[in-house]
Each structure stands twice: as C-alpha cells, then as structure tokens.
Amino acid sequence: MTHFVSTQWLADHLDDDNVTIVDGTWHMPNAGRDARSEFEQSHIPGAIYFDIDAVADTSRDLPHMLPDAATFGAMAGALGISSSATMVVYDEYGLFSAPRVWWTFKAMGAREVKILDGGGPKWRDEGRPLEAGWSRAPAATFDARLAEGAVSDFAAVLEASRTGDAQILDARPAARFTGDAAEPRPGLASGHIPGSRSLPFMEVIADGHIKSEADLRALIADAGIDPQKPVITSCGSGVTAAVLNLALDMIGAPRVSLYDGAWAEWGARADAPVEKGEAR
Predict the structure, then answer these.
(1) Which residues make Cβ contacts (< 8 Å) with residue 66, sequence separation at least 6?
(2) What are phi and psi of 267, to 5 degrees?
(3) Residues 96, 118: contact at Cβ < 8 Å?
(4) Which of 130, 116, 126, 117 is nearest to 20 (CA)?
(5) What pLDDT is recorded for position 232?
(6) Which strands sit side by side in the sheet containing 112-116, from one edge to the other?
(7) Which of 235, 242, 250, 256 is catalytic?
(8) pLDDT score at 135
(9) pLDDT band for position 29 (cuts 50, 70, 90)
(10) Is the Cβ–Cβ distance between 189 and 274 less than 8 Å?
C-alpha cells in the first residue's frame, strides 16, 4: 500500500479533475501562528484548506474531536471534497498534522487518501508554483461512514489500561510521558496512561519524511508494541497520535485505533488514573 505521492506526481496531476489537494496545516496553540492566514498568503495551487478545529464536534469542550459521520460528510462536501476523489494531503511542516487529516478521511470512508511526501516545505524548496487567496471549490458529495474500530473513547482506553487487551502507544515527547515536563495546555495532569508505552512521534520522522518501514518496525518493537495485536494511539490532543497510526499502517498493523480525546481529556479527568516515570 502506497501512502505517499511525490511532489513530481502532484505537479503532473495538478489539473486532474479527480485529484483534490488538501492543506491540513495545524499549529500547536502555543505556536503563535495562524494557519488559515498563512494559507491565504500562499499555498499549492487549487488546494483546499482543511481546518481540523472547525471540521469537528464543537459541542464538546475538547479540541478537534471528530464529528458524527453525517456532520462530517456535510462539512467536507461544503468544502468541495468528494469521498470518491483521490485526495493528496499536506502540511507546511513536512509531516506533522497531515497524518491527522489522512486518518480522518480514511476513518470517514474516503476512497483514496495520500500524503504529499515532504509536504509544503519540499514543494517550496523545489520552486514549484504557489498561489494566494482563498481557494473555493464547488460543493461535492462526501458519503461519510465512520469505520468500525477507528476511534477509541475514554471508556475503551480505560478498559485497555486495566486489562491489557489493547496496547496503548503515546506519541507525546518523552518528558511529557514521564511527567517531567508540564503539558502545554493548562490544567492538565502530568504523566501517562497506566500501562501505556512511549514512542514520540518525532522519532518516526526524519527531515519531514516518514522513516523506512524497517526503521518503523524497529522503533515500534523497541517501544514494546506487537503490531499484530490491537493498538490504541494517543498524544496531547489527537493530532500527532495519527503519525503513529500512519507508521503502524505502513507496517501492516491490522487493528489500530486512535484515542480522540487523548491527554486533553485524560489529563483533565479526576477519575483517570495517571502514572509517572518510564514505561514498565
């Protein structure tokens, strides 16, 4: 299964009617940057900006939670994104938030979703065309159906933590996992879900590209994860966990879900047990 397309492939298919380019750039809340404004200033020609904070269940006090399938389908269709199109997702870091958008569309039943290898930085470094302004596409039909097992909620993660029926893999930096560093979102406990393992998402990325499948297998094994058994990924708010979903999918892991509430939910709940220190 090919998860990526090259910048040359995208340049050759910029005008294809069935190729939809999606800019999934998202910045951490403390980054002091505005992805929407940056998109309006400059983006790959024809790209549609996908705001994970807006295409979300805004009724919940948690960041960018997946909405229900009907709501997602209506929102994606209004943006001009069809579930039958070939989607190419990128971000302006190289590989950071694009996997979250890739995972979202896959979870919601998109036919074909690829990630641009090297993302916006590689496209720009190669001197390829850019455009300014706000891209608008005709409304489309997105037939959204949430894939079974794509998402884990608090109860499922708590059960996995207690029983070990599913492995929990945390994408946050190691110091946040151990509790030695404070969370960037105020009011959250420090530490990790009991029984979870640590694989910081940056360890599976090199210079804006995902590492080789051999490297990914080694890193996942070193984290104490058996990819043939169920895995639940987690992180700070459900964004970088998707980088691990991508890595696991690339090595053929058959049963991987994402804890959408992530530490933003777990670390705020008085009834959520928390451990500190290294994984045992």
Answers:
(1) 56, 57, 72, 104, 107, 108, 146, 151, 260
(2) -70, -10
(3) no
(4) 116
(5) 98
(6) 4-5, 112-116, 86-90, 19-23, 48-49
(7) 235
(8) 83
(9) confident
(10) yes
pLDDT at 147 over 90: yes
pLDDT at 1 over 60: no
Secondary structure (3-state) at 113: strand
Active-site residue flag, 235: yes
pLDDT of residue 157: 98
Question: For residue 219, what is the enclosing H or E element?
Answer: helix 213-222
**Which residues are 23's β-sheet partners?**
49, 90
Q: Which two tokens stand for residue 92?
A: 């302006």
Bridge partners, residue 87, by sequence: 20, 113
Query: In this structure, what token pair is assigned to residue 248?
Result: 């696991």
Which domains are delineated in the chain?
4-125 (3.40.250.10), 151-266 (3.40.250.10)
Q: What is the pLDDT of residue 31?
A: 87
pTM of the model: 0.97
Helices 241-250, 98-107: crossing angle, 10 deg rounding: 70
Summarize pLDDT for 206-245 with one digit per residue, the tens: 999 999 999 999 999 999 999 999 999 999 999 999 999 9
Tokens of 61: 């006090």
